[in-house]
What we know:
By secondary structure, the chain is of the alpha/beta class. Helix 1 (12-21) packs across helix 3 (47-53) and helix 16 (398-405) runs parallel beside helix 17. A hairpin with a 2-residue loop joins strand 8 and strand 9. The strands form four sheets. The protein has a seven-stranded mixed beta sheet with strand order 12-11-13-14-10-15-18, sandwiched between helices.
Amino acid sequence: MALPDHEHKLTLAEVLAELVEDGLVPQANADKINFPARNQGGVKLHPLVVVASQKWKNPRPPFQSLDLDELTQWLARKVGLPYQHIDPLKVDVSAVAKVMSHAYASRFMVLPILASSREVVVATAEPFEREWEREIGQILRCEIRRVIATPEQIKRYLPEFYNLARSMKGAVKLHEGAGQTGIANFEQLVELSRAGNLDANDQHVVQIVDWLFQYAFEQRASDIHLEPRRESGNVRFRIDGVMHHVYQIPSPVVTAITSRIKGLGRMDIVEKRRPQDGRIKTRTPDGQEIELRLSTMPTAFGEKLVMRIFNPDVIVQDFKDLGFGEQEEQRWNQMVSQPNGIVLVTGPTGSGKTTTLYSTLRSLAQPEVNVCTVEDPIEMVMPQFNQMQVQHNIGLDFATGVRTLMRQDPDIIMVGEIRDKETAEHAIQAALTGHLVLSTLHTNDAPSAMVRLLDIGIPYYLISSTVIGVMAQRLVRRICPNCRKERAASPEDFEGFPAGDRPAKIYYGEGCVDCRGTGYKGRIGIFEVMEMTDNLKAVLTSNNANLSEIYRTAAADGMVSLKQVALQKMLEGLTTYEEVISVSG
């Protein structure tokens, strides 16, 4: 970069001159920009932030917007330093906070992001300021490696990392000071917090819980896992169906966090020997309403807590957004538009059955229709439905719930899950008396649902006369649209795939900031729709109604298997062969 080699802060004039010289910004645009640029608080903005705010386009193909990430990467290339997108889930906050004080880091606007005995990695947006590097190097006696990050990321994460480290340290000290009664003190403080009288020391735990929720929402996590171990506890997020290790927390702090969250979920904080369920309704930093379903499980080292995150915008979607193809959507709508009968959705836990059912019920819940559900638990409270929660402790199970709903003049009934013969019999009775019943089963594919119903004792003639159809589903990770690439396929790309059917090209995600380098962003549904045809009814009424015969008949009558649907998504460039294998083997 053609800049003076003495230590100094970047100026807007220098950055604009280099952008013009590199052909990224026309001279006319550079001449129009205002000097100096300050924010509303009177603080001078970083030159890259000023240029990014102009929303200029790169005049060269592919004509990308000159946003802050693009400009920071340009600066990193110019000065010969690595560009680093700061991922808070990969930063050991407690370790990096020991490198330098908060005040010192704020003075130079630098942020340690990795600390080990051999090296310290520090992010900066001022490549020509080196004073801090010399001073820290003399103190730590290890290699200091600089990377370039966006000034906005440094500005945002600098106070967050140090506040979190301070809260973690304070929570540990509180436990040590409490001695053997530390855990009881935490529980008492949580109870006080619920009453509105928050002790100052408890603020450490409150801040850690707030941080946990905030990052889970930002990272699009579907589940948060708090797992106690002997010396420390693990925090893990499930993102796009894959578990990611996030943080290690001292065991006493894990106990305190669990107690805090149980208090918020109106669960029994003192009881740690039996599993409990609860729920929390909260808001994201941008004001979006989010619901968390809580579940605890006693383990060898304490209570394991899992929080499933339900976003109303995600759980109720358009069928095309869920991944339905045109033919699948048409067949599904045809099945659920029948006046009576049973429609089943099958698949393992976490395959998106609830999202499909809620989206379907929302489309069916017109003002002239009475929609009633019995669920365990109620996944998401919806104003369009009449929802009932199963409560086994008072004898309210699925079978009793369906029997109760029959007296509520329903048009459409949704049963959370058919688990036993009694529930299945009540669902069939509802279908025979003129109601549309939607429910779920835990089977691997659609044909297996028939065998499952036969196994629990439902006669074949009741199955053939009431079941309208079955849909099996899975979720596969979607290739990130921002970094999707294609290339010619090689034999190694499709190992085990029939040679004559191998695609000529392959789609993959290169990895970018938007997808956190994974190449995937979000998930898409894979659906196997099986209608109850006359041929299938004939197979069920025969004495040899085995799974293979049911599968052959369903396929002959138009059912497209999960594997075939997944392969089609791959050919369309929506997912990868690895994801197809994860679904179909």
